[in-house]
Design a protein that fits this description.
Blueprint: E1 7-10, H1 14-25, E2 30-34, E3 45-48, H2 50-58, H3 62-68, E4 74-79, E5 85-90, H4 92-99, E6 104-107, H5 108-120, E7 125-129, E8 131-138, E9 143-149, E10 152-158, E11 160-163, H6 170-174, E12 182-194, E13 207-213, E14 216-223, E15 228-236, E16 245-248, H7 250-256, H8 262-269, E17 274-281, E18 289-290, E19 293-295, H9 298-301, H10 310-325, H11 333-362, H12 366-386, H13 389-392
Parallel strand pairs: 1-2, 1-11, 2-7, 4-13, 11-19
Antiparallel strand pairs: 3-6, 4-5, 8-9, 9-10, 12-15, 12-17, 13-14, 14-15, 16-17, 18-19
Helix pairs in contact: 1-5, 1-10, 2-10, 10-11
Bound molecules: flavin-adenine dinucleotide.
Length: about 400
C-alpha cells in the first residue's frame, strides 16, 4: 500500500532533477538535496540522443530544449592522421524519422536550467541547495538524511533514498558500501568559444565533428543556439593533479594536437581557457540497491563518454525509477527497487561496454586505424546507424 513519505534524492544533477520532475508529475512528493549553493554547470556541451530526448520531450521540455539546443544535420567522422572524411552519418530529420525524437546538442547549463525551471514549478518538490550531508541512514521503515544547511542542522525523512550524486557518489560509498570511482587512464579537455568570427572552411557549422587519432580524439559541435562552439578532446594520459577537474594549460593541449590536420589545430587554438577532467568510471561491482536505498546515474554506472550516453542513461534511469515509485514508497518497495536495478543494470552494462569499445577503436593508430577506417566505410552510414538502434530506439515501459 502506498505511504505518504517523500522520496529523498541526493544530488540535483541531470539524474536527480529528471527523477524529481517525473515523480512530481506522477503525484509523488520529493525532497531533493544538493551540496552546491547554486546549480551552475561547467562551460561544456552535451549530446542528447533520441532515447533521452524522447523522455524530455514527453515531459513537455521540447520547446525549451529546441530554443537553445541545436539539431545537427550530421556527424562527420574524420581520420586524425590524414584529415580525410571517413563517413558522414545523417542526424537531423533522419533521426526524427527513424526514432520519432531528435538528436540534440546543447549546453549543459541550458539542459540543467530547463530541468530546474520545470522542477521549480512543481509544488510536490522541495529543493534544498547548499546542504552538507553528514549522515545517511536506511532502516526498515524509511531513510534519514542529516546534515547542515546554512550552518543549521537539518534532517530529512523519506520512504526511499535515491543516490544521484554523480560518479564520486557519497551515497555509493557510505550507504551501499561501494568503492571509490576508478580513473580510466584518459583525460577529457573541454572548452567553448564564441562562434562569431570563426571561419570554419573545413566543416559545416551545423555538423558535429568527430576526429579519430592515435591515443586521442576530438569532438566539436555548436551550442547556445549556434553562438558557441563546444570542444571535447579525450587523450590517453596519466592523472597527477589534485582533484578531478582542474584548469587545463592551453599550451599542453595545443602540443598534444600539434601534428593533427590544420582544421583541428585551428579549432584547438581558439579557446582562451580549457578545463581538464579525469575520466572516471563507477566500479563495476557497485551494488545498485540496499534495502530502501537505490543509486541512479553516474553514481552507479558512470562510464566513459565515448557513446555520449552517460546523461542519457541517467535520464532513462530517472524515468524508469519514477514508474516504479509511482505506486508509493511503502509495502513491497524493496522488491520493486531490486526489479528496477536488475533491468537497468543489464542495459547500462551493455552501453558502458560499448563506450569502452569505442574508446579503444577511436584511439587506434597506424595500420589498425587504416583497417578501422576501411571497415567503417565498408559498413556505410545506414548500417552504422542501424547498429545504434538498440540504444537510440529504447523507450521506457508504459506507466
Ligand atoms: C567530457 C564528457 C563529455 C560527456 N558528454 C556526454 C554526452 O555528450 N552525452 C551524454 O549523455 N553524457 C555525456 N557525458 C556524461 C554526463 O555528463 C554524465 O553522465 C551526467 O552528467 C551524469 O548525471 P548525474 O546526474 O548522474 O551526475 P552529475 O551530473 O555529476 O550530478 C551529480 C549532482 O550531485 C551533487 N552532489 C555530489 N555529491 C554530493 C553530496 N555529497 N551531497 C549532495 N549533492 C552532491 C553534485 O553537486 C551534482 O549536482 C559526458 C561526460 C564527460 C566527462
Amino acid at each position: 500500500m502506498p505511504d505518504h513519505l517523500p522520496v529523498v534524492v541526493v544530488g540535483a544533477g541531470i539524474a536527480g532533477l529528471t527523477l524529481s520532475l517525473c515523480l512530481a508529475r506522477a503525484g509523488v512528493r520529493v525532497t531533493v538535496i544538493d551540496r552546491a549553493q547554486e546549480l551552475r554547470e561547467v562551460g561544456a556541451g552535451l549530446q542528447l540522443s533520441p532515447n533521452a530526448s524522447a523522455i524530455l520531450f514527453h515531459l513537455g521540455l521540447g520547446s525549451a530544449l529546441d530554443a537553445t539546443g541545436i539539431r545537427p544535420e550530421a556527424i562527420a567522422i574524420r581520420d586524425g592522421a590524414s584529415g580525410r572524411l571517413i563517413l558522414r552519418l545523417p542526424l537531423g530529420e533522419a533521426m526524427v524519422e527513424r526514432y520519432g525524437a531528435p538528436y540534440i546538442v546543447i549546453h549543459r547549463a541550458d539542459l540543467q536550467g530547463t530541468l530546474l525551471a520545470a522542477v521549480e514549478q512543481e509544488p510536490r518538490v522541495s529543493l534544498h541547495l547548499g546542504v552538507d550531508i553528514d549522515s545517511l541512514q536506511e532502516d526498515e521503515a524509511g531513510v534519514t538524511v542529516a546534515g547542515r544547511e546554512a550552518g543549521q542542522p537539518v534532517e530529512f525523512r523519506g520512504g526511499v533514498l535515491v543516490g544521484a550524486d554523480g560518479v564520486r557518489s557519497m551515497v555509493r560509498e557510505k550507504v551501499m558500501g561501494g568503492r571509490p570511482a576508478v580513473y580510466t587512464g584518459r583525460t577529457a579537455w573541454r572548452a567553448t568559444f564564441k562562434a562569431e568570427g570563426f571561419v570554419a572552411q573545413s566543416f559545416r557549422h551545423n555538423e558535429t565533428g568527430l576526429w579519430l587519432g592515435r591515443h586521442a580524439h576530438l569532438v566539436h559541435y555548436a551550442i547556445d543556439a549556434g553562438r558557441e562552439i563546444n570542444l571535447v578532446a579525450a587523450i590517453d594520459d596519466v592523472w597527477n593533479d589534485d582533484g578531478w577537474d582542474v584548469p587545463g594549460d592551453p599550451e599542453q593541449i595545443r602540443a598534444a594536437f600539434a601534428r593533427w590536420p590544420e582544421p583541428v589545430r585551428k579549432l584547438i587554438a581558439m579557446p582562451e581557457s580549457w578545463r581538464k577532467w579525469a575520466l572516471c568510471e563507477a566500479p563495476r561491482d557497485t551494488p545498485w540497491t540496499r534495502g530502501r536505498a537505490v543509486l541512479i546515474g553516474d553514481a552507479v554506472h558512470g562510464m566513459p563518454p565515448f557513446v555520449a550516453q552517460g546523461a542519457a542513461m541517467a535520464i532513462e534511469d530517472a524515468r524508469v525509477l519514477s514508474g516504479v515509485l509511482a505506486s508509493g514508497t511503502g509495502g513491497d518497495v524493496e522488491e520493486r527497487l531490486s526489479g528496477f536495478a536488475e533491468g537497468r543494470k543489464a542495459r547500462t552494462d551493455k552501453v558502458a561496454a560499448a563506450a569502452r569499445r569505442n574508446g579503444r577503436i577511436y584511439h587506434l593508430g597506424g595500420a589498425a586505424a587504416k583497417a578501422r577506417n576501411l571497415g567503417m566505410r565498408a559498413l556505410g552510414a545506414e548500417r552504422l546507424i542501424a547498429g545504434m538502434d538498440w540504444i537510440y530506439g529504447w523507450r521506457p515501459p508504459e506507466g
